[in-house]
Amino acid sequence: MNYFIKAIVSLLKEKTNLQEDEIEKLIEIPPDLKMGDYAFPCYNLSKTLKKPPNIIATELSKTLQATINENLLESPFKKGGLSGITEIKAIGPYLNFFVDKAIFSEMVLKKVSKERDRYGSGNIGLGKPVVIDYSSPNIAKHLAVHHLRSALIGNAIYNVYKTLGYQCVGINHLGDWGTQFGQLIAAYKKWGNENAHESYTVTDLNNLYVKFHQEAEKNPVLEDEAREWFKKLEAGDTEAKEFWQRFKDISLKEFHKIYDMLGIHFDAFIGESFYNTMVEDTIARIKGKGLAKVSEQALIVDLEPYNMPPCLLRKKDDATLYATRDIAAAEYRKKTHDFDKMIYVVGSEQKLHFKQVFKVLELMGDDWANHCVHVDFGLMKFKDGKMSTRKGKVVLLEDLLIDAVERIGKIIEEKNPSLENKDVVANEVGIGAVIFADLCTKRNKDVVFDWDEVLNFEGETGPYVQYTHARLCSILRKYGKPVTTDINYELLSEDEAIILIKNLGRFPSVILKAAELYEPSLICNYLIDVCGNLNRFYNAHRVLSDDEELTKSRILLVDATRQVIKNGINILGMHAPEQM
RNA sequence: GCGCCCGUAGCUCAGCUGGAUAGAGCAACGGUUUCCUAAACCGUAGGUCAGACGUUCAAAUCGUCUCGGGCGCACCA
Q1: pLDDT tens across A376-400, in order?
Q2: Distance between start and end Cα atoms, chain A
Q3: Is the ipTM above a cut-off of 0.95?
Q4: Over 90: is that where the pLDDT of A457 sits?
Q5: Where in chain A is the domain with CATH 3.30.1360.70?
Q6: How far out from the chain centre does Cα A234 lie?
Q7: In the predicted model, what is the mean pLDDT of chain A?
Q8: E-assigned strands of A129-278?
Q9: CA–CA distance, A148 with A222 (Å, rounded to integer)
Q10: Which nucleotides of B are covered by protein (CB under 7 A)?
Q11: Residue range(s) in chain A whose domain bears CATH number 1.10.730.10
């Protein structure tokens, strides 16, 4: 709660019968600057007071205004009357409060200036470990655009939580186990070129995978062979394991390359296979609790009482399933990290799966089961349907990234040919465009992948935000002197400045909300908003001028805005180049 | 069939723990550069907030139903 809201709450508390938190909840920001800085709707009071809300607003405005004038409460500020509130006015059913703009500006700008890179951060997470599971692609397949969402959302949430002081553990839960490895081994044994395996790439593995599915349709025996190989793998067969390790190495090499391009960080790459040794123990304990039973030759946990289909632990051929491994993994992670919260950033098509897994954990007596959250997100698809690795119907992530960087390179050549480090900047902006485009929509919506849309760099885009930041850096460079908070805050009185400053003050609460809702898009929208505010200010007022006092004031605003944009950009996992 | 998610301007989306005239961007049209990066800014045009009923002083926002789209529902992950 900021200072002014606190003041308003304390004023209203005396004159109404409402509780502090009730009042705070009701306080809102008027849609127009001219209507005031904060507003209190009087509809609720009209019920208890049995009077129309506009009458109540008028009466309250009179008594409160009188309080201000008498200066009954002590104010930490010399000017601006009571607590920096200058006027209280009724507009229709609303009680509107005007605050001293200079005081407000001073508070916000000094805070940003003082906290710098830490502005927006907090300490609510101090001493609380959070495990975040994101990206988690399957081995032996290319990373494609539909893999972006988990990786980017997860990475951003990681940064948000870290900003709030949480001790984050980012885990890439590689899909390196399961029947598909049996398929791959079977395919490799049949059609793979052993002599050339040294130079194998994910493309070769993927071709094998595609071929397997084509052939298996004609010849179902192949599926049995694949199952056989997977059973061998699970049993620790040397030959099977050797193939598996090979596939894994090939994949990881490519994954790392792309994660590096995207700037995505993980603290650990621990695949499903890692939990293979624990699975038996997990099943034994589930059985021990009397939760497991055999049904249709498979081992299940019946979730009928909870209106869910059963959770499958073991197939009829004895092989385990991913639910089993997820349960084992969750318990292992709890043991090793003692997390306060565990976040799974996985597509919404797995909603039921996680509901089942969390329920089984709960039934097992893991009282932390409700600290696990599935942060789901909508499907990415093409205009004409779902993306599918199996059908080879994908846009490879690498291709998209390279294309984005190239296009930005051309734009730089066109608009700023004398720029230094063009390649570096093209990378930061091109990749940033892709990141921002993906993070920008609320995660629960399905997104249709549109090449032109992702690679459009005007309007509400990553490059727009980065460009705004670069412009501000440019002004500061030209100014060339140290920025000071010792300025005349009265000079920042234009509407464009006030709106901007108000928004800068909101930043910490945006981060908090993004954490609470696991919603990086809030930060994207916020940045777009701030950049719009800034660009409007920039367009209407010159920062550098002969008027030294005015210049000093505006420079502080420029520097604070630059800082906020940079902090936001970084949390999203993007770079903020100083020139572009 | 059952469950979950989505449906706001031609397109992509904000707004959704109810509140003051429903906001941006793209696309279209018109304008702004002797001036801090025009990747910007301003203006014009564009809306039965899918539809119906209900709750409320007040509904894009909450509830029920209908329609349309997506996803999931036992041996893939």
Answers
A1: 999 988 766 666 655 556 789 999 9
A2: 38
A3: yes
A4: yes
A5: 3-99
A6: 36
A7: 92
A8: 129-133, 167-172, 268-269
A9: 32
A10: 3-6, 12-16, 19-21, 23-27, 35-42, 57-58, 69-77
A11: 397-571
Structure tokens belonging to residue A98 = 């005007």
Picking from A506, A503, A575, the residue whose alpha carbon sits closest to that of residue A535 is A503
Nucleotide nearest to A47 (CA to C1'): B57
Domain A397-571 of CATH type 1.10.730.10: yes
Nucleotide nearest to A25 (CA to C1'): B17
Cα separation, A204 vs A217, in Å, equals 20
The one-letter code for the residue type at A491 is: L
Spell out which residues of A between 395 and 414 contact strand B, using CB within 7 Å.
408, 411-412
* CA distance to A173, A223, A245, A423, per residue, from A234 (Å): 18, 16, 13, 46
Within 158-217 of chain A, which residues have Cβ less than 7 Å from strand B? 175, 177-180
pLDDT at A25: 85
The first and second tokens of residue A171, run together, are 């885990």
Fold category of A3-99 in CATH:
Gyrase A; domain 2 (3.30.1360)
Sheet with A298-301, side-by-side order of all strands? A292-295, A298-301, A311-314
Alpha helices in A416-461 (DSSP H): 422-439, 451-454
Sequence length of chain A is 580
Give the integer Cα–Cα distance in Å for A171 and A177: 16
Which residues of A in 438-467 have their CB below 7 Å from strand B's atoms?
440-442, 444-448, 450, 453, 456-461, 463-464, 467
Give the alpha-carbon dihedral of A357, A362, A364, A368, to 10 degrees.
Answer: 100
